[in-house]
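Handout, page 2. Input:
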Amino acid sequence: MIRTITITEIGLPEAIFKGKNAFGDKVVKPVLKQLVRYWHKFFLPRHFKEGAQARYHYRRRTEQYKRRKRILAMARGRAAAPLVFTGRLKREVSRTIKVKGTGKRAQGVMTGPRYMYMYSKGGDRPNIAGELTKQTKAEMNEQAQRAERLALALINSDRTRVRHRIAS
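Output:
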């Protein structure tokens, strides 16, 4: 005579899909936070490489600015990289990023020099913060594919065991 019947489920429990934003908090939030860290580590440095001005469509700089930048770069014995005049911006934003996230979005907060936010819409100053965070379509597609892989890996790695007693 059978006294107890127990069913064991391996994988994500159904409870992860129940609740106001349970799936978002347990799967989407960690994935989005990892994407922001990945962007900071691999995509941000591309903004300071040769050809970034054409790739990210930065606003044209004045001839006076370009001349001053070229002279400063030659005096220091290096090439004039995009978004780098003295190197302070690159140094500060590349150092660290603070990542905040919810089940719907993640945000990276970088500290940079004051002039990063000193721009006027339609004025003569470029939006450096906007230029710094621009992404190409290829980068966005790469991030989307990475998000899918990370989410699937996270879901498949959870081997939670749940036991249900049906009869006793």
